[in-house]
């Protein structure tokens, strides 16, 4: 099982998901606390972020253990954005260990990570091809095919998870994706946690939208929302997302829908 994490809110560095929290993704790469499948996440890692000067997200991924990349700490400190996604990987048995099998996968403005496993046959009628034989690359290709049909992020995730989950009852399909302005995630067989990190009023959860006007030019009032396979630290406020749900996070708030 891989571990993934994302942030939507006021601009932050990727180090805020990876290096700064006590149980950030660096620590989770060798000592995850809630992992049910696999013990370490040493088969690769990746991160993606949005730089206003570029039309598409910037992605950095490698098929080596996160702790071996001596260039990463400085890069993660410098890479800042209001929308961040990162992941560490333990390859499912039989899956290739290569960069093209490593999250985040990307297409246009979307970034996507898959925590779980699924029979590739369960995805064949949703995607024609994928850049790797890895099941996660096929999941990403299926989601990205929906994007190209103009479908919204959350709906694309939900459709692929429900379809593949019906075809492969043993599938685990925790997806985490973003498009620069919103996050979407599914729970289907593994854990997922959410934490509102903000000055100002609490995010309603589960709920539909934030009450009241937001300060001009600062849609998140300095705060935002963290989503992660397992909590990045021991601060209070982490909430478990129930299994078989779709989580949507945008500047408008947080929504939870059953799948
Ligand atoms: N099945 C995917 C892979 O092999 C994801 C694995 C995981 O969640 N550990 O990369």
From TrEMBL:
<dbReference type="Pfam" id="PF13230">
    <property type="entry name" value="GATase_4"/>
</dbReference>
<protein>
    <recommendedName>
        <fullName>Gamma-glutamyl-hercynylcysteine sulfoxide hydrolase</fullName>
        <ecNumber>3.5.1.118</ecNumber>
    </recommendedName>
</protein>
<dbReference type="InterPro" id="IPR029055">
    <property type="entry name" value="Ntn_hydrolases_N"/>
</dbReference>
<dbReference type="InterPro" id="IPR026869">
    <property type="entry name" value="EgtC-like"/>
</dbReference>
<dbReference type="InterPro" id="IPR017808">
    <property type="entry name" value="EgtC"/>
</dbReference>
<dbReference type="InterPro" id="IPR052373">
    <property type="entry name" value="Gamma-glu_amide_hydrolase"/>
</dbReference>
<feature type="region of interest" description="Disordered">
    <location>
        <begin position="203"/>
        <end position="229"/>
    </location>
</feature>
<dbReference type="InterPro" id="IPR017932">
    <property type="entry name" value="GATase_2_dom"/>
</dbReference>
<keyword id="KW-0378">Hydrolase</keyword>
<keyword id="KW-0315">Glutamine amidotransferase</keyword>
<comment type="function">
    <text>Catalyzes the hydrolysis of the gamma-glutamyl amide bond of hercynyl-gamma-L-glutamyl-L-cysteine sulfoxide to produce hercynylcysteine sulfoxide, a step in the biosynthesis pathway of ergothioneine.</text>
</comment>
<comment type="pathway">
    <text>Amino-acid biosynthesis; ergothioneine biosynthesis.</text>
</comment>
<dbReference type="GO" id="GO:0016787">
    <property type="term" value="F:hydrolase activity"/>
</dbReference>
<feature type="domain" description="Glutamine amidotransferase type-2">
    <location>
        <begin position="2"/>
        <end position="259"/>
    </location>
</feature>
<dbReference type="InterPro" id="IPR032889">
    <property type="entry name" value="EgtC_Actinobacteria"/>
</dbReference>
């Amino acid at each position: 099982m891989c571990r993934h994490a994302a942030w939507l809110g006021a601009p932050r560095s990727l180090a805020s998901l990876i290096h700064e929290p006590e149980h950030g993704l660096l620590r989770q790469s060798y000592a995850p606390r809630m992992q049910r499948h696999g013990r370490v996440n040493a088969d690769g890692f990746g991160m993606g972020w949005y730089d206003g000067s570029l039309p598409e997200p910037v992605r950095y991924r490698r098929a080596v253990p996160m702790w071996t990349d001596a260039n990463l700490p400085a890069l993660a400190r410098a890479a800042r954005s209001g929308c961040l996604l990162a992941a560490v990987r333990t390859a499912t048995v039989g899956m290739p260990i290569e960069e093209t099998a490593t999250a985040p996968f990307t297409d246009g403005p979307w970034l996507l990570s898959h925590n779980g496993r699924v029979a590739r046959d369960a995805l064949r009628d949703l995607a024609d091809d994928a850049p790797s034989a890895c099941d996660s690359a096929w999941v990403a290709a299926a989601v990205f095919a929906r994007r190209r049909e103009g479908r919204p992020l959350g709906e694309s995730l939900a459709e692929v998870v429900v379809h593949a989950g019906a075809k492969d009852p043993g599938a685990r399909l925790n997806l985490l994706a973003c498009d620069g302005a919103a996050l979407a995630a599914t729970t289907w067989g593994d854990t997922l946690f959410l934490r509102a990190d903000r000055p100002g009023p609490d995010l309603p959860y589960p709920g539909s939208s934030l009450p009241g006007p937001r300060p001009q030019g600062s849609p998140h009032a300095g705060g935002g929302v963290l989503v992660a396979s397992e909590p990045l630290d021991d601060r209070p406020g982490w909430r478990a997302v129930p299994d078989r749900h779709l989580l949507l996070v945008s500047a408008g708030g947080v929504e939870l829908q059953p799948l």
